[in-house]
Amino acid sequence: MEQTRSMTIVYALLALVFATLLGRLFYLQVVEQSFLKEVSSQNSIRKISIDAPRGVMYDRNGIAVVDNQPLYTLQITPSEFNKESLPLLSELLGVSELELEAKIAEGRAYNRFAPTKVVRDLTPLQLARVEENLWRMPGISFALESKRKYLPNVRGAHIFGYAKAISKAMYEKVPKEIYARDDIIGYRGLEKYYEDILRGTKGTRYLLVNSLGRQVGDWEGGAKNIPYQTGNDLYLTIDAELQGVAESLLTATGKSGAFVAMDVHNGDLLACTSQPDYDLNVLGGFTEASAWQAIVGDPKNPLFDRTTQTRYPPGSTYKMISAIAALEDSVATPSTTFYCTGHFKFGNKDFLCHGGKGHGSVDMTRAIQVSCNSYFYNLVRRIGFERWTKYGKMFGFGQKTGVDIPDEQTATIPSPEYFDKLYGKRGWTEGYIISLGIGQGEMGASPMQMVRYAAALGNSGTLLQPRVVRAYRDKNSGAIIEMPTVQEKLPISQSTFNVVRNGMLLAVENGTGGRARVPGIKVAGKTGTAQNPHGEDHAWFICFAPFEKPTIALAVLVENAGFGGTVAAPIAGEWLKRYFQKYPPIAQHVAEQNAKPLAAR
Amino acid sequence: MIELNYEQREGFWKTVDWSVLLAIAALICFGLLAIYSASNGVGNLSIFYKQATWVVISLFAIVVVFFLPLRTFQDFAYLAYGLSIIALIAVLIFARKIAGNAAWLQVGGASFQPSELAKITTILALARFLSNKDNDIRQLKNFAIAIAIVLVPCVLVLLQPDAGTALTYLTFIVPMIVVAGFDFYYILLLGVPLVCALLGFISLIGFIVLELCVIAFMLIMRRDFTWSLTSILVGAGAGIASNIYAAKLLKPHQLKRIQTFLDPMSDPQGAGYNALQAKIAIGSGGLWGKGFLQGTQTQLRFIPAQWTDFIFCVIGEEFGFFGTSIVVSAYLLLVFRLIRLAEKIKNRFAILVLTGFVSLLLGHVIVNIGMTIGLMPVIGIPLPFLSYGGSSMLANMIAFGIVLNFYKHRRDVSFS
């Protein structure tokens, strides 16, 4: 009896033990299965996103001006990295332990199980040295990214711009479904403006990782991997060779300045440079802090894009606006004549012309040809402030040009209302407008504004929106998507343009812009000098050519170069020579015939 | 006369407990598959081949033991025990260290772990001592001798130091002395405060449940009221005290070990790693498993000691609940058959030996499987017939050779 009772207890306990074991197994393997399976996948499957190379930029002739090349980045998974490897790694890389540690700590704070990019843009030597010793240092891996490759003779710093690893501040602002920490994003130039087009789509790779964190291959043989998609290629309007020419011509002056060349038919920029510039190779991959500091700290401010961000008075190049306003609103005719004594007295102020020597009796064409200030002092008094403002606006002054280069700036074009606001209702006098008549004083223009003005004079009244990108290739469909051209026909008569254009032609043929002459090609241009209260005056030169049937318009600015004809005009002349060698004027004889009646006048 | 004709009368078929053999065969098959998978994971199949060799050797052993005369085990129990003790001492002097434990003896080309075989010989020796009618366990002298028989090898193993194996020596002592006639009530009186103290530290609720169970049990047993009450009260005091003070008294690393046992997720990369990875492996196997050689936890080496102590994880991951329930059922079958046999047999020595074997088997199964599924702390002992290890395989086979030998003679008159 006693025996049976104990056996019952024994069997009951046995049943309890085995029921517990089986119950627990059932719970883990059936109830909790999906959760634990997920954990087990996370254990061994690592999702790695593969950065896509950015789109390539091609110049107007199909030359890759901004290309890609491989960039090796050393990354460290903090949870797997052994601190004792630090001295060895530091020695192999030639990077201080402190710097490495800071980077690892940053990654650890974010996610210690995810690889964090520690040293970007490894040299082949660094790569080889670390790779050889990889087995000693768990947690280290390499990421193959791409960095930009540029042509040796084309810098294009301000046009192309650069992309770099997203900063902490910027990361807060971008959509997280697209960008991850450490991703590359366009910071300046086209890289910034066309970020959405250039940026590819990241791929995903599922890697099997063993308990030591070592990659042992693709999960499910790579069937689940998603390939990356390269960014869309940009087709630029820039001519790489002529861009290089413009850069070296401007650099040769040793001065700061800007050069913009535009196709007068559609606003395509063939060359566009601001000097001093910076070396994109320094910023295209991983940028050393010291190199970055050198660029930022340069007193000449190479990051400043003088083509779109300067606001210097246009000087005498602006005289054509006054002439057009006078002719269009019939306050003067082409034969309206003023007598220039070299002095123009207004109130108690004496405005000088030609160093006070005087041009004698001048008509409108000649006034443009010799850049007679007195003529335009007189003329602008007839035109009046409102008309002057109206025609300035018509040619795009005081407004952004809309060029596809980011961070464009513009000055406000003066108007009575603007001066009222600036100086108070009675705070300014008519004397102010006399300076404005010759493009000096309270006004500013950028070379980008100037080139579309020059182009509008060249094509007789079509104001164009400048552009650097004419199309892009959609990597999905392979289709080439053209960018629209934006243009506006100005309500100005051809006869008015004929007078002004003739003046500009004579200014180059036999006037202030003589040094812009190109053998065999008629160039029409105008010099300008921006008065600079802080130092030597800035030199302007704008032009278009060939005169009969223009294809190209230029705006050249050289800072602290004095008179526009001395430094700025020769740059234009030299560049045009190279331009016409490459793109000879089409059917020149036909154009000449058409132009004959004009030239005969 | 009758026993000589035994085999003729019953036929050979009836002399063997085929269900036991089937269960063992199933376990060994699963074990070999799991070891193959685990050794495949580390790219070293020699582990599998070694184990397969040991299986063959052990099969010879089980056949030999099966055909030995019944009296052999009782007659040679003390001799075998003595040899085991010598071997255990030899291990302490000559042994080479494997995984921090000096547990192996080098015999010829093979290394051997005496502590595994010593479990069997200790049970045989204790059974022989307790089966002697002159040695009344209720006398203090005999009680002390019985305890000493177990404690000597246990301490020697502990010195290796191998706490896990030493612990297994304690699994069979209580059941065997109770079967020999020691009053379970006294064990209960002593055990309650100890278990209460332990449980009080781990879980207050668990401790209260235990106390209630003990009270109910004492009421059913209807024994001496004063003793029962004292034990319950001391237990309650110990439980409450350990619940409040133990955390302060324990050293930080000891505390951490207990905490990680209770919640492996609290330190997934450190102390709780093994327990956590084991649980993940088993759970991720699901109902049918990921398939042979397909377990990522196994093949990518996330499971520690996956061909020895954590072999069960490999089965759980690659063969799922299907595989684990077969394995658990096979153990249940073995335990059940052993108890049934002990119930049938009238021979005192055989009953005691069977009690010892069942306790030992159960102890290994509960602790090992319990630790892989998060019900037990991580204690490094092998899973019988499954884990890699020749000594363990051989010892278990010999033990079941003895069991089958008893079964063959279960109706033998002289045996009863």
Summarize the structure.
The complex is a heterodimer of chains A (601) and B (416). Chain A is α+β, with helices and mostly antiparallel strands. Chain A contains 22 helices and 23 strands.
- Overall shape of chain A: it is elongated
Widest β-sheet, arrangement of strands of chain B: 1-2-3
In N-to-C order, the SSE pattern of chain B is HHHHHEEEHHHHHHHHHHHHH
**How many separate domains make up the residues of chain A?**
2
Query: How many alpha or pi helices of chain B?
Result: 18
Strand tally of chain A? 23
Q: How much of the residues of chain A is beta strand, in percent?
A: 15-25%
- Looking at how many chains there are and whether they match, the oligomeric state comes to heterodimer
Largest sheet of chain A: 7 strands, mixed
Parts with pLDDT < 50 across at least 5 consecutive residues of chain A: 589-601
If you compute it from the alpha carbons, what radius of gyration of chain A comes out, rounded to the nearest whole angstrom?
A: 34 Å
> Which range best describes the helical content of chain A: under 10%, 10-25%, 25-40%, 40-55%, 55-70% or over 70%?
25-40%
Q: In the CATH hierarchy, what is the class of the largest domain in chain A?
A: Alpha Beta
Q: Catalogue the unreliable spans of chain B.
A: 1-7
Helix- and strand-based class of chain A? alpha+beta
Largest interface chains and counts? A-B, 34 and 38 residues
Total domain units of chain B: 1
- Major β-sheet annotation of chain B: 3 strands, antiparallel
Overall geometry of chain B: globular
